[in-house]
Structure formats: C-alpha cells, structure tokens
Amino acid sequence: MTAASDRFRTHLAVPLYRNGYLLTLGAGFGSMAGFLFWTIAARRYSPSVVGINSATISAMILVSAVCQLGLNAVVVRYLPAAGSVTRRLLVAIYAITCALSAVAAAGVALTSTTWGPPRLAFLSHGWWPVAFAAATVCWTVFTLQDSALTGMRAAHWVPIENSIFSLVKIALLLAFVGSLSRSGIFWAWNLPVLLSLVPINALIFGRLLPRHVAKTDLRTLDLRAVARFAGHNYVGSLFLLGSSTLLPVVVASEVGSEQTAFFYIPWTIATGVQLVALSTSTSLMVELAFDESRIGDYARRVLRQTLRLIVPAVVVLVAAAPWVLRAFGRRYAAEGDTLLRLLALAAIPNVLSVLGLAIARIRHDGRMVLGIQSATFVGTLGVSFVLLPRIGIVGVGWAWLATQTAIAAWLLARSLRQILSAQPSAGARGRAR
Prior knowledge:
- This protein has one domain (17-432).
- The protein is 84% helix and 0% strand.
- The protein contains 18 helices and no strands.
C-alpha cells in the first residue's frame, strides 16, 4: 500500500498529470452538477420551458464564445511565456472581449424575432436585451478567467470555483421553481457566474499574476506572432462553435422546443465526457509552452491517460443509456437513449481531435487548427441538416460520431502518427523522471 501511494504521489508531482487531473476534476464535478441541474429542471419544469431555456443559454454561450475571439486558447498557450507583459495581455483580452460581448449580445437579443424560433422572440422585449447582454459579458469573463488560472499553473483553483458555481446554481434552480416558472433555469445558470467574478479576478490580479510575472520575467513574447496565430485560431473557433454550441439552436429551429429538450440532455452529458480530453490537452499545452522539446513523450502520456479516463465512462453510458436518462423522466429515456449512445461513442475519436488541436496550437500551426475545426463544422452541421428532418435528433448523433471518426483517422494519417511514434531524447527522458 505504501509503495502504491508513493507511486501515486510521484505521479501527481508531475505538473502534466496534476494539472490534468485538477482540470478533469473541475470538469467532472461540473458535469455531474450539470446532470443534477438538468435532472431537476426536467422534473420541475415542462419540456417546453426546458427547451426554451436551454436554447436561450446555448445562444448566450454561442455569442460569448464568438466574442472571445478564440483568445481562451491563446491565453492558455501564451500566458506561461508572457513574462512582464502578462498583465497588459490579460487586461487587453478582457477589455476587447467584454466590449464585443455587450454589443453583440444586445444586437442578438433585439433581432431574436428574425433569427430564432418564435418562442425565443421574448429576448427582444422589455429588459431582456440588457439582461441577455449582461449575462453574456459575465459568461465571457467566467470562461477567460479559467484559462488565465490554467495558464499561470494555478489550475487547483478551477475545480474550487466550478464546484461553488455548480452548487449555487442548483440551489437557485430549486428556489426559482415557484417564483420564476418561465425563466428560472436561465437565471439559476447565470447569477452564480456574476457572483464569482469579483473574488476570482481579485485573486488573479492581486496574487497570482504578480507571482507568475516574477517567475517568468526573463521570458519574452512576440505579440505580433501571437496576433497572427490568434487570427487563424479565431476563424477556426467559429467553425468549432457552429458544430457544438450552435447545435441546440439548430435543433430548436428544425424540430421544435420539446425535441430540443430531449436532445439537450444527452448532448450535455456527452459534452461532460468530452471535457476530460479538453482538460488533459489543456494541461499538455501549458507544460509544452515551457518546454516544447518534450512534445512526443508528453503527447503519448496524455493520450494514454485520457483514454484510461474516457473509455470506462463511454462503456457505462452505452450500456446504461436508458437508465441514465430515466432520471430525467420516461420520455427523455424513450427519445434520447440512442442519441446518448452515439454521442458517447464519439468521445473516443474526439480524444484524437482534441489532441491534434493542442499540438497544432503548440506548434503555432494556425492552418491545422483551422482545418480541424472547419472539418468538424462542415461534417457535423452538414450531416445534421440532412438527417434531422428524416430521423430526428438521432441524426445529430450519427453526424457527430461520423465526423469525429473521420477527423481522428485523418490526423493519425498525418501529423499525430509521427509525433506519437517519435522517441524522446535522453535529456527529455531524464527530465521527465
């Protein structure tokens, strides 16, 4: 027992693994809390209300993600090497993305009668444009602050922050059942985000950032190179958004708000599984930003570690999909079990897609980033539009699985095979021990 615990402590002492576990823990707790959140929502609110609120939240997250300009990945990739310009870089990113989020969200809300289904037209009425814009700005900062924490090797704060956020939103969801029967889900989701911004950013700018600058002050950062990479990454991120966050909105437009509720629950569960790969690849980017020479060794380690975590979860979801969805109600199980199985299976090839993205970002390969993300968009949305009218929400599951499998095969045939098969140098092996 002592030997095993010693090995585990040694394992956790490696930042690549430790930060990956911390980010996975945060994502895992958030996913479980999200499962509980939507279970309560499905039990306490009608499918129509769940569908409207899930589409509204998806629209908010979509607008926020567009206005983040793909800079969350830039923060994770370049903040470790920013040195003395760290504060200036982060403040500039916050200012630009928040201003864009406010303007874009207000515009989206005011024009909701033209772009969205009829049941989202309420966004253009009364105080909703202001509320939607404020929620979008808060979500933008909420997302970027996690990237800042990760880029400064302070990932241990991410699960703490996300756990508190998740617990508070569940408590508010229960509290709003009687008083906000139509919009309680939206407000329960967003008010905890607002409450987290001041303490987390006080921690970032008051404590963590000065410490990070002191440790990395001798490093230099070519801001022009960062801007060039950010341009490719942003265009690619727009494609990725179209194939993920936009899907609930597309489903709502094609098959109605009730079917959107039956789609959104399996999609949320499957997205939680995919966050494991995102977490481990994010840790990979941070560590390789300090030492890119270990790319092959670290990529193999992360691939093995991610599959160890994801494959058991996929097996459970495929085998127990109806029982998992039964927690939300019989109709959710009847309508969504096949969709959940397909989305769960897609999490396995998605590991390679996410790993390919991380390596492309480390290598400043904006074209590869754009290629992976545009292929995801074209495959997922194209096949979904064909299959949704014919076989309903199951068509999105087939579209996502087929697209992720094709991209994984393409990456293995190109860049990943060479990287994963490369042997580490003697110096890299010595440093990894």
